[in-house]
Records
---
Amino acid sequence: MNANSYGGYILLGIEEHRGETDPAKRFTIQGVTNIDKLITDLWNLVHDPNKVNVNLLTDDDVQVIQFDEKQVIAIYVPRADYHLRPIYINNNPLRGTYHRNHEGDYHCSEAEMRMMFRDTNELGNDDMLLDGFTMDDIDLQTLNSYRNHFKSSSPDHPFNRLSNVDFFRQFGCLGKDKHTGKEWLTMAGLLMFGKGLPIRTRFSNLRLDYIDKSHLVGEMRYSDRLTYDGTWENNLFNFAMFVLPRIVRELPHPFQMEGLQRKDDTLQGKAIREALTNAIIHADLMITGVLKVEKYDDKFVFTNPGLLKLPVEQIYAGGESRARNLHIQTLFRMIGFGENIGSGFPLILSAWDEKHWLRPELIEQPELLQVKLTLPIENKENTGLVEKLVEKLVEKLVEKLGKKLGKNSVAIIELIVNNPNITYVEIADTLSISTTTVEKRIAEMSGIVIQHVGPKKGGHWEIIDK
């Protein structure tokens, strides 16, 4: 039913010709007769709990529209609130629950059904006790790293004096079974701070993946990747800490001072942090899927398993938030990740608008049971001009130097054009080459197409011939 997806209209008295390709001829108005009886039957149907489990319609949702001498009944079916889903028929949630996909209505899968039932829980998903998982399954290095961030953010907080066990209790990472009295880790505790093996044992459905597809040369598939390879404990905190520096590295960082300290955080950096946090706290971590971050030359893409609990337009407007993982949300917020409830997405929009970048796009992909957020880093007015500028600079260098440029030289030009504040070390790290190689390649270009203004660690790049 539309109520389980996006809502929509049902029109009685309109005939559709599915084989017709001309939009003007696809629908014809046939009209309906016996209007009063049809509407009475409709209300009897939606108020019968054996037919529909919840009635969402109000009087204003049913309208009679006059077309010349014909009448059409227009029924607006609203999107059901997550508290009420699933909406099903014939008193059978397993066989009577449908969702709309393109032009058809389809039975919801068992995974979709379970997800909708879980979403009715106001306490979220991550407070679930994990029978048999204890503090022995926690990676102490990860926990100590988090507590250091916590102490740095809130040096006078009384939680800093607590033992690890009491710290976990305060944040809902450890809970007591009411029947046995035993304490077990919660879903939040294990996924946020756990060792990799216990996480993979209990949550074999979930995969964490970061892939950098920027600055590719030749047949390269990616320039950097972080997935499980046995070299790190693949919990959510580590994933966020490893991925964030990689995706903000090439954002513009204007030189600013706050007292005697350099201030590198920008509105765009905060927006990226918000997007990463949102992907984690809104993910349904109990279905099979990938929590994935992708970096391209012209965009960032964040994908998380699960569907939206709120309508897209409500998320864009802000003011409300319905995280699935409330304890994980609190843990991130206490170290400066995540804005106040409901203000996160407007922050992202504001940050992108400040740079005149293309509007962020948030979409549901019901067929994949996932949500995808795309953050373009191309200017509205200048889409495609960066590529043209790089081409012109390369042409000028080839002409002046009398030789074909190597792949590192082209990649360095692209990095500098996209981020005039990038340092020698950052270029070397991004391209996985030595700083000596970077300095040699840049020496060839200096004075021809680029020049560096100011000290190496605090200056910026300028294009000589714009």
Note: The domain at 135-376 is CATH 3.30.565.60 (Heat Shock Protein 90).
---
Amino acid sequence: MIIISLIGYTAAFCSTFALLPQVIKVWKTKETDQLSAGTFTMMFAGAILWLLYGLLREDIIIMLANGVALIFIGFISYIKLIYNKSS
């Protein structure tokens, strides 16, 4: 059972923090022209659904991972909305 939890924690960490380099780049440059609004909309919807699933299953790892992902996705989407001059 410990190995299953370890796999889950590792997967949650990798999936969640895969967005961190993009968050850092957007924070520094404020450039989001190359980022797809559709992709981030789908990622946002997926993270909300995963968070809901985690809440219903009372699974703290799913809740935490997707809560953090929502913060990252929300930040990138906000910067895109504010700084994207081509929309």
Note: Residues 1 and 7 are 10 Å apart (CA to CA).
